[in-house]
Amino acid sequence: MVCYLSYNSPMTAMGRPTLYEPEMCEQAHNYCLLGATNDELAAFFHVSPSTIDRWIAGRADFGDAVRQGRVVADARVARSLYDRAVGYDREIERAVVLDGKLKFLTSTVHYPPNVPACIFWLRNRRPDTWGDRAPSSDNYSYDPVAELEAAGERARHEPIPSREEVP
Fold this sequence. Notes:
The chain has two domains: 67 residues, no CATH class; 62 residues, no CATH class. Helix content is 50%, strand content 13%. The protein is of the alpha+beta class.
């Protein structure tokens, strides 16, 4: 009977040591609040995009920080898109000189609904109704996207009333 005895030394870590630092979680979170992609995070931390992918997958604190930052950023963009789609009012404050005195005037500016924003919102929120796909039945003739585009064209060609005409 032949018996081989061998000694297996414990494996040492191969490759370069990680550049990851726990403080990077907060930096990644803040950068993701501004809409950073994995490629932009990689450039910011001076690592490769695959390293960022590994940190997100393998380090729960880093992955959570990135995901939470992106959720907030995506929510802000969704809210802004919604506001553009339905229209909104905004308070504007301006400084003017009147009779040699500096006065502040506040006015409300109305931003009307934006048709492309409406279409984008509806196609993503209600793809079964507003999607680009052709309707499944042949007798279906109503096209809500075409109707919205036509309404946008009509609004674009209407003259803008002067201040005196607006009630």
